[in-house]
Each structure stands twice: as structure tokens, then as C-alpha cells.
Design goal:
It is built from ten helices and eight strands. The protein has 312 residues and is α/β, with parallel strands linked by helices. It has a single domain (15-158, 230-311), classed as Alpha/Beta hydrolase fold, catalytic domain (Rossmann fold, 3-Layer(aba) Sandwich). Helix 4 (163-171) packs across helix 7 (211-227). The mean pLDDT is 97. GO terms for molecular function: hydrolase activity. This is Alpha/beta hydrolase. Keywords: Hydrolase. It comes from Chryseobacterium hagamense.
């Protein structure tokens, strides 16, 4: 299985995305950066736009099926790769913050002259989407959070690791370690062929000489997730919000640095989803029983039904 994984450079230059990739030139923190995004236009437009925000171990490519279905229903679909991820630049001196990523994301909407959008964030993308909504509520028509991380404050469980320690840990990643992590937290120890492409992408990085650049940004973004919780501000979200929660998910940042007696209390999505719904006024919760961290990959039809019913 691992023999098919091929080396991938930091910007995935030889990895084809499902739609045309465009780049926004960003001057940010004294860096000249390129932010990749896909802009999928429908044949018959309904006047609405959906922006899809990827998770930490992913990039915009895994939204292919979602984007095709949204486009067929008349939605314009914008799919950014955040700085540090996918085909976007991997700056080595950059202060990663959810506010900065949200601001970079807004720059794409500004460039495309899109005033208002429906925002869907998965995993870490849920934290970006939350911060984006809190910073720019006038730009958000509706918010959808699909198994977002950050529904709890990981600092209250896990001990701190320095960025240097996180970097050393990232450098040890292999196809096998990534797969074991995903099996444990995402898929309940059941592996399907449709999961393989999303493992190949991050595993391919570990085989390329560029990997230290990617690993450094991964360490910086891990630090951002640990130190910049969004869960205390859910009460300030005022836009219509939907939570799509696979209840089998147990993803939690820093679980390996948490006392053994506390580890089982982390990443309990069947409880965290309900708690978040209570905090976000008027929000809706769709729980997907016995589904893990990636509903839009694992049980696409159930995911699509929940999404489309909320935005149509």
C-alpha cells in the first residue's frame, strides 16, 4: 500500500487538483506569499457562494465531490489552501494565527469581489471559519462546522510543547504513523480505499527533501491550535449556524501529552457537538451516528443531505 506513495514537494507542484488552481499574491509579515485557491463556477448560477475551508492534515482537493454537487445546484464554490498548506506558500518565518488566516481568506473574497458567502469549515478549517465569522460577520451568510477541532480548550488537558519539540515530532512522521493516527482517531480502525488519497498527500511530503519546510509550518500551526482556542467565543456567533458532527470522532490535539486519566475525556464529539450547539444561539445540530472525523469522505450522502438542507 505504501509503495504507491510518491514524493511530493512543498507546494504540491506535480499533484493535480480537481479544478483549475489560481494564486493570490499576498504581502504578509514581510513575506511575499502565494495563496492557492480554486474558484468553481456553476453552469446556472443561483447567486450564492460557498467557501470550503480544509483541515490541518488536508488541502482543498478533498472537497472535489462537495464542490461538484454544490456547483450543480447553482452555487459558486471557493476553495482556498491556507498559507502553510496544500499548494500555498510555506513561509519559514511567519506568525500563524487564526486571525491572520481569516484575513488571508478574506483577501481572496476581496480579490474576487464576493461580498457575502456561506462558510463551511472542517476540522482545523472549523476554527478558521469560526474566527472568520467573528471577525467579518457581515461577510458570512451562514456558517457550517463539520467535525471542527477546537470545540474544547486543549490547554486545559495537554501539557505545552515548544515549537521546536513539535517540529522534531513532525520530522518523525511517516506514511505508517499518519495512517495509524487516522485509523485511531478518524476511522475506528477500519480502512477503506477512499481514505487512501488523503493519506498519500501528507505521506508524500515526508518522502521529499522539502519535508522540513512543511514540518516546520505544521509545528507552527499545531502551536496555533493549542494556544488560540475559539470555544470561549461561540456565544458571540450571530449568523445561522449548522454543526455536522460524526459522533465516533475522538480527535483531540495533544492527547499524547495529557495525563492518562484525562485522555478519555478529550475529543468526545457526541458531547462536544451538543455543548457547542447550546453555546451558538439558534444553531442546528445534525449528529451522524458511528461516523468519524471526515463525514464528507466517510458517509458523503449523509453529509450532503445535512449540508444541502441547511443552505438550499
Amino acid at each position: 500500500m505504501f509503495s504507491q506513495i510518491r514524493p511530493l514537494d512543498a507546494e504540491l507542484t506535480n499533484y493535480p487538483y480537481p479544478f483549475e488552481v489560481r494564486f493570490l499574491n499576498l504581502k504578509s509579515q514581510n513575506n511575499d506569499l502565494k495563496m492557492a485557491y480554486m474558484d468553481v463556477k456553476p453552469k446556472t448560477a443561483n447567486g450564492k457562494t460557498v467557501m470550503l475551508l480544509h483541515g490541518k492534515n488536508f488541502n482543498g482537493a478533498y472537497w472535489e465531490r462537495t464542490a461538484k454537487d454544490l456547483s450543480s445546484k447553482g452555487f459558486r464554490v471557493i476553495i482556498p489552501d491556507q498559507i502553510g498548506f496544500g499548494k500555498s506558500s510555506k513561509p519559514q518565518s511567519y506568525q500563524f494565527s487564526f486571525s491572520q488566516l481569516a484575513n488571508n481568506t478574506k483577501a481572496i473574497l476581496d480579490e474576487l469581489k464576493i461580498d457575502k458567502t456561506i462558510v463551511l469549515g472542517h476540522s482545523m478549517g472549523g476554527m478558521v471559519a469560526t474566527r472568520f465569522t467573528l471577525l467579518y460577520p457581515e461577510r458570512v451568510e451562514k456558517l457550517i462546522l463539520e467535525n471542527p477541532i477546537g470545540l474544547e480548550d486543549y490547554k486545559t488537558f495537554a501539557s505545552y510543547q515548544t515549537i521546536d519539540q513539535a517540529y522534531q515530532s513532525e520530522l518523525k512522521n511517516t506514511a505508517e504513523s499518519y495512517k495509524n493516527y487516522q485509523l485511531k482517531f478518524y476511522y475506528d480502525n477500519k480502512w477503506k480505499a477512499e481514505y487512501q488519497p488523503w493519506l498519500d498527500l501528507i505521506a508524500g511530503w515526508t518522502l521529499h527533501p522539502d519535508y522540513p519546510k512543511v514540518a516546520w509550518d505544521a509545528a507552527l500551526t499545531s502551536d496555533m491550535i493549542y494556544n488560540q482556542p475559539v470555544c470561549y467565543e461561540f456565544q458571540n456567533i450571530k449568523v445561522p449556524t449548522l454543526l455536522i458532527i460524526g459522533t465516533r470522532d475522538r480527535t483531540a490535539i495533544g492527547k499524547d501529552r495529557t495525563p492518562k486519566n484525562l485522555q478519555p475525556k478529550m475529543g468526545q464529539y457526541q458531547e462536544l457537538g451538543k455543548k457547542a450547539q447550546q453555546q451558538i444561539a439558534g444553531s442546528k445540530l445534525v449528529e451522524l451516528e458511528n461516523v468519524g472525523h471526515l463525514p464528507h469522505i466517510e458517509v458523503y450522502d449523509q453529509f450532503w443531505s445535512a449540508l444541502y438542507n441547511f443552505i438550499k
